[in-house]
Every structure is written in structure tokens, then in C-alpha cells.
Amino acid sequence: MSFQAYLDTIERTTGKTPAGFTADGGIAPGVKATRITDWLKSDYGLGHGHAMAIYALLKGTKREGDA
After folding, report:
1. Within a 10 A sphere around the Cβ of 4, how many other Cβ atoms?
2. C-beta separation of 2 from 67 below 8 A
3. What is the 3-state composition of the chain as percent helix, strand, coil, each rounded to the nearest 5?
4. Backbone angles phi, psi at 28, to 5 degrees
5. Cα separation of 63 and 50, whole Å?
6. What residues contact residue 53 under an 8 Å CB cut-off, 6+ apart?
């Protein structure tokens, strides 16, 4: 599955985009991967891979549209 497919599934499943976790063009200070992934898993039923994809996007490791 491509990274974009992960993002599409996340948005379709949650109705959310990753913008809520960011500040000044990156992850907001003090926000750790576990905090984001645990929230996405519990509130939206995402799997670990999908939750980590959101974290990678927010951290700047991946960008929307990357394969």
C-alpha cells in the first residue's frame, strides 16, 4: 500500500486531516508519537501502520503524495 493510500484511508475513516497536531510547520512541542498513535487507534480504530503514517507525515518524514 502506498503512503498516499494510507492517508486516503485515514481521512476516509476519521474525517480528519493531520493539521490538528501541528504548530509552526511541524509537530507541536511535547507531542510524542505514542500520544498521536494511541489517540488515533482508540478514537478512530486505526491500525498501528496507519497511525504511524500520520506521525511520519506530521514529523516531515513523509509528505502527502509520496509513494
Report:
1. 15
2. yes
3. 60, 5, 35
4. -60, 145
5. 14
6. 3, 6, 7, 10, 62
Record the pTM. Answer: 0.60
**What is the residue type of 64?**
E
Hey, what's the cell of 29? 512541542
The grid coordinates of residue 8 equal 486516503
DSSP reduced 3-state for 61: coil
Query: Alpha-carbon distance 27 to 25, whole Å?
Result: 7
The predicted pLDDT at position 40 comes to 83
Residues 6+ apart with CB under 8 A from 10: 16, 40, 46, 50, 53, 54
Residue 19 confidence (pLDDT) above 70: no
